[in-house]
Predict the structure.
Amino acid sequence: MNGTKTLGIDEAGKGCVIGYMFVVGVALNRDEAEYLRSIGVKDSKLIHPRRRLKLYEEISRIANLIVVEVVSPSQIDVSNLNIILMDRYALIINKAREILGGNLTRAVIDAIYRKEILEKYLHNKVRGDLRIIVEYDADKKFIEVSAASIVAKVLRDKHISLLHEVYGNFGSGYPSDPQTINWIREYFKRKGTLPPIIRRSWKTIKKIAPSYYVDKHRERGKRYSGAVKNGNKFTC
């Protein structure tokens, strides 16, 4: 716990149509970061799953702090995904600050959407004096973010494996995976409904099961209209 810490933050499962999204922060001091670099920690997408699991175990062993936020399909279906992520980033940083105090001096986040918007949001939401770095491809440039990407990916993979045990093998859960799309189509054909593991606001669902598709923009518009009608202030 000695020395100043840097918190790296990344996510896994942002673009999937099935399953949870995992947002993870990993806090490391300089020696821990250099050790993880020496054993091959890097962007999780560049590492074989078996090796990723070994690195995950080592990260879990030595990291000062790991903070995990899980976002369900039902939460994603009622809000903007970028706003959800920005909110979770701020929450993770503030949690880490509460635990590590002044020892946490820097947070590095893998950029989503527009970098300047995320930077402004975090500076408004994060408590205390903390250097915040928002960087595109941060998972390739900062070992703390690489570590967070590995933890998030392994947790996401374990989650998908558990869902496979319950629902059968639907593949990766991403809309680019033909196995996933075929599974959703066949499930809906057999049962006439969709399970709660599916994000109903994805356009994939609009094509396969239009009656179960959730149009987030329209739903937010309805809530806004209702608020205005009732004379309430409403922020979309």
The chain has a mean pLDDT of 89. The two ends are 41 Å apart (CA to CA). The beta strands are 5-12, 21-28, 65-71, 104-110, 131-135. The chain is about 50% helix and 15% strand.
